[in-house]
Amino acid sequence: MNRGNELITWSNKLMCGIRLIDEQHKGLVMLVNEMFNHVTGDEKQESEYFQRVIKEAVKYVKIHFATEEKIMLATKFKGYAEHKKEHDAFIINIFDTIHNFQYRKRFNLYSFTKFLKDWILTHIALTDKQYFTYLRSIATRQTDGRLCVNVKECQRS
User: Residue 42 — φ and ψ, nearest 5°?
Assistant: First the structure.
């Protein structure tokens, strides 16, 4: 097992400065690292693990995507439609993986975690970066250094 190894190391390069999004991205990184640490080479063990965690993982990803999309809509981000297409394509890909797993097509946890790593890093570095830049241009910086893009959020914490 890969216990304690990181497939993705969180760094400031992945941060956008909006606490909620940064925390969710950290959660995604932790999720991928958790899956990676369950790569054993034993298909049965990996399949049992995947079956236990995938529904919660999908739920987490959907919540994260909904959060990003809500922020983009609220701030009138012009790249919203294209960004949402990427989110939708990712979810379809995950559902295809789950479908294949359920119908006993070959499953490899290492390949799946590698796919997640590549997608997350590319998505954050390229696609998310576009709306991070936009949000920074319209956000207000709080005295504690946080960026806020909406008055209610700024007042809450």
Answer: -95, 105
